[in-house]
Amino acid sequence: MELVARLVVVVFALSLISPQVRQMIAAVGFVAICGAGVVLVAGLGWVIYRFATRERRTSFILRSVRCDTLEVEVAEEPKPPQPRTDLGEYVNFNGSNLKQAKPHTTAELIEQLRKIDWFQFEKLVALVYRKLDYAVTRRGGANPDGGLDLIIEKDGQRWAVQCKQWKTWNVGVKPVREFLGALTDNGIQKGILITLCGYTGGAKQLADKHGIEIINETGLAQMIEDTDARYDPETLEILNDKRKFCPKCEAELVLRTAKKGHGAGSLFWGCSAYPRCRFTMPV
Fold first, then answer.
1. Whether 114 and 224 share a structural domain
2. Structural domain includes residue 70
3. Residue 13 lies in a domain
4. Could you identify which of 24, 212, 213, 279 might form a hypothetical disulfide with 191, taking C-beta atoms 3.0 to 4.6 angstroms apart as the criterion?
5. How many domains does the chain have?
6. What span, in angstroms and rounded, lies between the C-alpha atoms of 250 and 259?
């Protein structure tokens, strides 16, 4: 410190005598001021950065805490229930992993309802009613059902359900009248007609008159969503099943190639039980 003090005195004395020394001191002072300014700006920027990132840094520190004797609860964004987040892949009945496509919107759910086979459609409707705590008896399929696909019971009351997987035709008066006749023959007063399409005004008027409820694809999709059925592994398996089944014997349909006739070389669906069952259907 003493040496520095002597040096300052000498430089000051020389500055009084020599103009060159005064210029040198002014230049050094200017550089020192600029350097101090840079340091000040850098320090201010660092303080602003630390202030702006303090919440993220604090959250990261809290999430990193691991302690055997102290539990730290960190408020996080709410997560959906576990059954809705881990069903994309699950183990089915034979132990193999199935990667299932889950419908995330009502439009996607309706699209999948339109893609499944009639056999899967009936199974899905029955499953939905079971989830609504109904006792369900299946009478449809390839067997004679008298116009009734399902019988559902709850709280001592019975309903008959008919599934119409029509994808382009609206339900008219005739199907409702036939369903009404089936209800009468079986001594059931209430009926539910489920269709993938709409219905005519006359059909709705006749159904309302005789206590028949008509549910279209939107209503069915709402029932599935209300029961959380679309997150259930059994429901997902039905929605993602691309197989087709014979409406006469319920055997699986297989793709075949016509070998003769005017359609030779074209593909068609044929019953796997051939020649016992000769049902065919165009692709």
1. yes
2. no
3. yes
4. 212
5. 3
6. 25
Q: Residue 84 has what DSSP assignment?
A: G
Residue 78 within any structural domain of the chain: no
Ordered DSSP codes for 118-143: HHHHHHHHHHHHHHTT-EEEE--TTS
The verdict on pTM exceeding 0.90 is no
> Given this model, what pLDDT does residue 53 score?
63
Give average pLDDT by consecutive 10-residue segment, the chain, 283 residues.
80 76 75 77 74 54 38 41 38 42 76 85 91 88 65 94 84 92 91 89 93 92 85 85 76 82 78 80 73
Tokens of 258: 């016509």
Q: Is 190 a domain residue?
A: yes
Q: How far, in Å, CA of 126 to CA of 145, rounded?
A: 15
Shared domain for 101 and 222, answered yes or no, is: yes
Same domain for 13 and 95, yes or no, is no
Full residue range of the structural domain in which residue 263 is found: 253-282
String of DSSP letters for 4-44:
HHHHHHHHHHHHHH-HHHHHHHHHHHHHHHHHHHHHHHHHH
Tell how strand 157-164 and strand 150-154 pair up.
antiparallel
